[in-house]
Amino acid sequence: MSLLEVRGLVVGYGPHPVLHEVEFDVEEGEVCVLLGLNGAGKSTTVNTIAGLLRPQSGEVRLDGRSLGRRSPSARVKQGISLCPEGRRVFPRLTVRQNLRLGAWSQRRSPRAVREQQDLVLDYFPRLVERADQLAGTLSGGEQQMLAVGRALMSRPRLLLIDEASLGLSPALATTVWEVTSRIRDGGTTVLMVEQNAGALPFADRALLMEKGTVLHTAVGEQIRNVNLREAYLGA
Ligand SMILES: Nc1ncnc2c1ncn2[C@@H]1O[C@H](COP(=O)(O)OP(=O)(O)OP(=O)(O)O)[C@@H](O)[C@H]1O
């Protein structure tokens, strides 16, 4: 059984769906990249998995159990955490305070929160020097690291990252993608949305999305296969 099963998702913002029977699986212990052009439906997909949008039909299962109509906060408690598009850090709070807010679901175990914060700061050493700085004064890349770090503070089993590379230099985008491998090795499965095919070398599974459906899936060595890249660039 896969950690995440997405089945027949039909989602829209009005009467007309923008996702048409989206189906895919993500296995535990993978970094999965959901690749597609602007408007393909990637954000809609991860926002639905996080419970921010309700599907017209279809379902999302975690460990084989349907999440039904569970709220976003209930999903966080079940182990799904979203790092949203646009980072959305709290600019007038410090780095440390932003991280603490990400741990709201863990507040009964302060020790676990401290340990998780140490882990996050280990993933993103740049944030250590900035721990007491206001998040609004960080560079774009640092804010992106903070946004991923904050999402990790709930100790998720599945981390959803929406377009981490947007607006970052190639070097910084690579830094963020590289960290996903460490996050995976630390026991958190990662599903990241990307428009940038540069993320593919970091993926164990790649899903190509176009016009509200998943057109291709590639696993392991297949990802290095030129056809996927061509299918994407030619899309
Ligand atoms: N809040 C909204 N209201 C109405 N339509 C929306 C809304 N958000 C997205 N859409 C539409 O849904 C479709 C899929 O958008 P979505 O944001 O999921 O795509 P995406 O692949 O994530 O692209 P992007 O990189 O732009 O985020 C697009 O046609 C978009 O215009």
CATH topology: Rossmann fold
Approximate helicity band: 25-40%
Strand order of the largest sheet: 6-7-8-3-9-10
CATH class placement: Alpha Beta
CATH superfamily: P-loop containing nucleotide triphosphate hydrolases
Secondary-structure arrangement, i.e. CATH architecture: 3-Layer(aba) Sandwich
Q: What compounds are bound to the protein?
A: adenosine-5'-triphosphate
**Shape descriptor:** globular
Beta strand count: 10
Structural class: alpha/beta
Plain-language structure description:
There is one protein chain. The protein is built from 8 helices and 10 strands. Helix 3 (95-102) packs parallel to helix 6. The strands form 2 sheets. It has a 6-stranded mixed β-sheet with strand order 6-7-8-3-9-10, with helices on both faces. The model has no long low-confidence stretch (mean pLDDT 91). The chain has a single domain, classed as Rossmann fold, CATH 3.40.50.300. A hairpin with a 2-residue loop joins strand 4 (57-62) and strand 5. The protein is globular and about 45 Å long. It is α/β, with parallel strands linked by helices and 235 residues long. Bound molecules: adenosine-5'-triphosphate. Residues 13, 18, 36, 38-44, 85, 195 line the site of adenosine-5'-triphosphate.
Per-chain topology:
Blueprint: E1 4-12, E2 17-26, E3 31-36, H1 42-49, E4 57-62, E5 65-66, H2 72-78, E6 80-83, H3 95-102, H4 110-123, H5 126-129, H6 140-152, E7 158-162, H7 170-185, E8 189-194, E9 205-210, E10 213-219, H8 226-233
Parallel strand pairs: 3-8, 3-9, 6-7, 7-8
Antiparallel strand pairs: 1-2, 1-4, 4-5, 9-10
Helix pairs in contact: 3-6
The structure holds adenosine-5'-triphosphate.
Adenosine-5'-triphosphate (ATP) is lined by residues 13, 18, 36, 38-44, 85, 195.
